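Intended use. Records like the one below are meant for learning the mapping from a protein sequence to its folded structure. Do not use them to infer anything beyond what is encoded.
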Amino acid sequence: QVQLLESGGGLVQPGGSLRLSCTASGSIGVNNVMGWYRQAPGKQRELVATITSGGTTNYADSMKGRFTISRENAKYSVWLQMNSLKPEDTAVYYCNYNGMWKLRRIDSWGQGTQVTVSS
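Structure written out for the chain above:
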């Protein structure tokens, strides 16, 4: 199993910035994908951004240019820098890990961190 510990959520005004952090522990394979997803009230969970262990990134269209995902493999950590935040970015943000361990796929989720964008 892989455990994920998230931090960095909070309340921010429109136009502000937040940085989310996620650190993984447990059965972490060399090749994996870590990412961020979010779920707003009454809506389905959606992709924010992912990054492979090789550094390849993927963003949802609405986040491109405002959000930046990064990682440091040696620290088993991934970050999400969110700039120019909008009220519609308000959601619970979840960290995700997806990788192989001894021929078994592991797909783990963090507990979520609340991001609220409001004046």
